[in-house]
Amino acid sequence: MKRRSFLQTSLAAGAAGLILPSRVWAGPSKNGTMQVGLIGCGRMGCANLRGVLAKGMQADASARVVAVCDPDTRRMANAKAIIQSFYKERGEAAVEVKEYEDFRDMLAESSLDAVVIATQDRWHAIQGITAANAGKHIFMQKPLTYSIPEGQALVEAVRRNGITLQVGSQQRSSVYFRRVCNIVRNEWLGKLKEIVVEIPTDKGSQPYVEMPVPENLNYDLWLGPAASTPYTELGVHTQTILDNRSYKGRPGWLQREDFCLGMITGWGSHMYDIAQWAMGTDMDGGPVSVSSKGAFPDRGIFNVHVDYEGEAHYDSGVVLRSKNGSAGVKFIMENGEARCWRGGMTCSDPELLRRQPADGEVSLYESKGGHEYDWLKAAHQGRDGVCPVEGGHRTNTICVLHHISMKLGGRELKWDPKTEKIIGDSEAAKMLHVPMRGDWKLPEA
């Protein structure tokens, strides 16, 4: 998409304190109602789909889901049925929804304005860059990408094409996390000293049981750039669809390193995102050293880490500690502490949880109405939402560095957040680059 307009704004309406640099934007949606497609019709894809359907009914976020894409035609048909049911319940007699097995065919459709990408992690960069190059706004499930170089390429593609990418780190759209981050950012309890992040751990084991590939699944396309392995439903995703058109349990690929790095990216991408947001290092910063130890017991086809603990050090002196636990983030400051999680927030001075930033203080972007709504509204207005592509990339960088350290037995990695390179460790630096299968490669950004 050609450069058409420049936007430099502080997003004063609801985003005081967040100043975006001058960027090239594709401009607001070319259609009054954005035409949206869904790539990846599984558990998270259908959850995001329901959000886009509901929020797209609002005038300032007007959107209509018109297409679905998945190499599993059964899942694609399920998502299509969700869409048709939604619009028929609102009085429409006939609802047309296009189906695509291959994402490239969907993204070649010029009438499409935006896509939700909710595929296995190895696909995110290829599909995201292809969508950005086609001028489509993107809601990208976390983690942003599988590797750090992929994230760098996706950031470049998004900015060069001037589209809005919202990372699915929905905690930024929660009042609990925003209020606690405002406490930290404004130093209402003094300077930040330490952050403690807790994330859940994977459990269970699954012996390998080779199965015939279902007729409804293009398994080679599902694998994409990931290594070719014999099919087993237990290591891909369930073929059972519940009566409410949802899926039971987490898909097996989340516990296989060919497709996902485990909870360090699965939940780490949520919790480290909040830590970075609170520190103000989410757009162009990060730690200067990372070390992490993880356990990799024999669990059959499940081979991601289980128990782990780690540290990341910032040049500000802040230490970010990580461990297994109930998902949450605790900030330890000079004069007290505050903690936030999906169910609430606490503070050693409870009054600060209700305090509103004064003029001249930092007031972090306030996303109201839900994460998908914030994305749709931002795309209509030609600007960033609450969780831009850089935020997802810088957070995922911490996750990946922790994973590399785990694989190297807990070795401390020196990291330069400006050049985005590992310092003085050629073995670790090589691990930043992950090969792709066959002819798959990143599109030109």
TrEMBL record:
<keyword id="KW-0560">Oxidoreductase</keyword>
<dbReference type="InterPro" id="IPR000683">
    <property type="entry name" value="Gfo/Idh/MocA-like_OxRdtase_N"/>
</dbReference>
<dbReference type="InterPro" id="IPR036291">
    <property type="entry name" value="NAD(P)-bd_dom_sf"/>
</dbReference>
<dbReference type="GO" id="GO:0000166">
    <property type="term" value="F:nucleotide binding"/>
</dbReference>
<feature type="signal peptide">
    <location>
        <begin position="1"/>
        <end position="26"/>
    </location>
</feature>
<dbReference type="InterPro" id="IPR043906">
    <property type="entry name" value="Gfo/Idh/MocA_OxRdtase_bact_C"/>
</dbReference>
<keyword id="KW-0732">Signal</keyword>
<protein>
    <submittedName>
        <fullName>Oxidoreductase domain protein</fullName>
    </submittedName>
</protein>
<feature type="domain" description="Gfo/Idh/MocA-like oxidoreductase N-terminal">
    <location>
        <begin position="35"/>
        <end position="168"/>
    </location>
</feature>
<dbReference type="Pfam" id="PF19051">
    <property type="entry name" value="GFO_IDH_MocA_C2"/>
</dbReference>
<dbReference type="InterPro" id="IPR006311">
    <property type="entry name" value="TAT_signal"/>
</dbReference>
<dbReference type="Pfam" id="PF01408">
    <property type="entry name" value="GFO_IDH_MocA"/>
</dbReference>
<feature type="domain" description="Gfo/Idh/MocA-like oxidoreductase bacterial type C-terminal">
    <location>
        <begin position="206"/>
        <end position="441"/>
    </location>
</feature>
<dbReference type="InterPro" id="IPR019546">
    <property type="entry name" value="TAT_signal_bac_arc"/>
</dbReference>
<dbReference type="GO" id="GO:0016491">
    <property type="term" value="F:oxidoreductase activity"/>
</dbReference>
<dbReference type="InterPro" id="IPR050463">
    <property type="entry name" value="Gfo/Idh/MocA_oxidrdct_glycsds"/>
</dbReference>
